[in-house]
Specification:
single chain; Glyco_trans_1; Rossmann fold; glycosyltransferase activity; 15 helices; alpha/beta; seven-stranded parallel beta sheet; 45% helix; Glyco_trans_4-like_N
Length: 373
């Protein structure tokens, strides 16, 4: 198949959806599909894709309004010249620009892939979205329920395809990595490390985790908390950690190019989100063989099961304390649950499994099994 990916993210930003495109575009190219990726001129998105896979065809575009005729014409020309079978789009802007260009071409199908609920209950959305999207890919049943709540999207055009990530199993259980990272962050080799990975934003629930840490620090002297990431709440959280006298127990490791080594040096993962459509950070923890304590919210219950994770109500610091304390105090439980986490990752969330599911979905759309009204 010949596929065009379109993503209009601003020039400076590169996030989870852009990383998904990088993985999928490169993976499908290696499976023999013709792949073109379109984005803004001089964007970090296109630069990263080009650096990652020099054989991907990149198409820089001038992107402005949602219905810009010049942009639609440029996309239409790309579809016609390359005989594109399907256009995979992300944002609402992409759906309109790519969708109108595809409808103009007459043959190319449109697949809308979203990781968050960006639907709106407006006249434009109600009228245009069902006419443009031949199929919609979401990572969880939870998000599928969210985007159908307005009533204008049919469930049979929505395909749930869980996100997959590449395997990095070589680091799991690596004693040298474990010792080196612990030394680098200033923690003893015999410390029990609970890692949390994610942006410092309200929906990730760090405030409630801090409430739990205050109690846990008193109960378990060997328990430390490693926080990976950055974000707008970082300074506020650092101040609060200092106020609580927890600076020696909560380690801010910053935004890392790769979290793999820090996860390999940890003993369990805490994911206290109050909103979460899927939870890629949890997948990374499962890949590293970590047992998980997470909020019972959004798509998280679809990522984990009770053999590899303990779910607690969101915003409930008391429940967090009990779940984390139970795992921190029982090395055998951590080992057993970590093994199940790793097994579940390999069977359900490997990147190759994701590629298989996307290929089947796109092929079905291209061959006429789905078509927007």
């Amino acid at each position: 198949m010949k596929l065009l990916f379109l993503n209009s993210i601003d020039r400076a930003t590169y996030g989870g959806m852009e990383e998904w495109i990088r993985l999928v575009a490169s993976g499908l190219r290696k499976r023999g599909h013709g792949i073109t990726v379109a984005g803004r001129q001089d964007s970090a998105f296109l630069r990263r894709l080009g650096a990652s896979d020099s054989q991907l065809e990149l198409l820089p575009l001038k992107i402005s309004g949602d219905f810009n005729p010049a942009t639609i014409s440029a996309i239409h020309s790309a579809i016609e010249q390359r005989r594109i079978d399907a256009v995979l789009v992300n944002f609402n802007k992409d759906l309109r620009l790519g969708g109108l260009a595809a409808r103009w071409s007459g043959d190319a199908r449109i697949i809308w892939s979203i990781g968050l609920d960006i639907t709106r209950d407006s006249i434009v959305h109600r009228w245009l979205t069902p006419k443009l999207a031949d199929a919609i890919i979401v990572p969880s049943e939870s998000l599928k329920r969210q985007i159908t709540r307005h009533g204008y999207l049919e469930t049979d055009v929505i395909e749930v395809i869980p996100i997959g990530i590449p395997d990095t199993s070589a680091l799991s259980g690596n004693a040298e990595v474990r010792a080196r990272i612990r030394s680098a962050v200033g923690l003893p080799e015999d410390a029990i490390i609970a890692v949390t990975s994610g942006r410092f934003v309200e929906q990730k629930g760090h405030r409630f985790l801090l409430e739990a840490i205050s109690a846990l620090a008193e109960r378990i002297s060997s328990l430390y908390f490693l926080w990976l990431g950055s974000g707008p709440l970082e300074n506020e959280l650092r101040i609060r950690v200092d106020e609580l006298g927890l600076t020696s127990r909560v380690i801010f490791a910053g935004m890392l190019d790769s979290v793999d080594e820090h996860l390999a040096a940890s003993d369990l993962m805490i994911h206290p989100s109050i909103e979460e459509p899927f939870g890629i950070a949890i997948l990374e923890g499962m890949r590293a063989g970590l047992p998980v304590v997470a909020s019972d919210v959004g798509g998280i219950p679809e990522v984990v099961d009770n053999r590899c994770a303990q779910l607690v109500p969101p915003r409930d610091s008391t429940a967090l304390v009990e779940a984390v304390a139970g795992l921190a105090s029982n090395a055998q439980s951590r080992l057993r649950m970590g093994m199940h986490a790793r097994e579940r990752f390999l069977s359900e969330f490997s990147v190759e499994t994701m590629f298989d599911r996307i290929e089947r979905c796109v092929s079905g759309v291209v061959h006429g099994e789905r078509r927007a009204g």
